[in-house]
Amino acid sequence: MNRSTKLDTATVNHALQVLEGKSRRRGLSRMLPFLGPAFIASVAYIDPGNFATNVESGSRYGMALLWVVILASLSAYFVQILAARLGTVTGYNLAEQCRRTYPKPVVMGMWAGMELVAVATDLAEFIGATIAFHILLPVTLADAALLTALAATLVLAVQSHGFRPFEWVIAAFVGFVAVAYVIELFAAPPRWAQVESHLLNPGIPQGGLFLAVGIVGATIMPHVIFLHSSLTQKRIRVDEPRHVRTLLRYETWDIVVAMSIATLTNAAMLIMSAAAFHHPGIPLIIGLSQAYHTLTPLLGPIAATLFALALLASGISATTVGTFAGQVMMQGFINFQIPIWLRRMLTLVPSFAIVVFSGWNLTQILLWTQVLISFGLPLALVPLADFTSRRTLMGSFVNPPTIRLTAWSFTVLLAILNLILIVGMLR
Asked: pTM of the entire structure?
């Protein structure tokens, strides 16, 4: 476990007292020391990639792909629970288990693939925050990119004061994005009967497969699967099976609370976009800047500003979490670690160069990164399903047959979707 992710002694002692039945605290106070890892992971489920895919999906297809958002988000509960269990039970994170189990050439290939995913992820988050700065402030795109780099570095520096303050900062960002979208739904109230109809009658409209897979890629992010297993790894050390079981139950609550917030926020993004933009006479929204400028006359400057501020909070927090995930994967796969600030610089430089010098459409780049990320999902899901189904690793906490079947079925289904998308793109 990375030293920078260790908890302070007071939080650990509080958790141990709860697990051993010695704490008199009740309610939220009792759960507090266990909350945190899932909130950090949940950032990836409301990142700028989600903004881009949900805004375009809502504008282009209305509520038609809402079921994809919900299904992908519910799948994320399952995936993150498995990741947390792996780290807690074995004491090794997912990348470390790959290095300990698989042949070296396979491990090196997985690491190379996940580094590409990390670059695509950081590029998406960086683009989102840069666009937000650019539309909120009277600055050039280059200046907005510099502000993004500075803001992300400052948030990353919070962890030097302890990992618990960093968890609270990230949780605050998640909370802000969620509140912003609750307000947006009041500004653009949807037809709830229409929402219900699309959820009960799922289908992919003609030409919608690319965005559907992009939604999955934007929702289930492979880097936070690796990160979550690291955040629970030796976070709170217990040996007795009954204490481990209790710890897993509290970690599950952490995931349920954090992922519920992320799921509802993610759904609200698409619902608001459909309610505001999917109307005759309103042009198709294919850019985050376009969404902001279209919202201003439709719903007023307050709603548009909230949209931009939520995008900013999402981008800055997500790119910071992505840096931690990259560090975890490098250390786990190849047993090599560099200073966190150097890792930050190595991912910032290509993102900055593409944003400032490429001249490409930033939102379209962002959408393509989500599809690329979805291709990296099997690199996380296959070993996760494998390791959590091995009794030699998990002992009595091994996946039961139904969970094992679900994990492998989900992995195969995602691989098939990606193959369909590749064939469609080639055609």
From this structure: 0.89
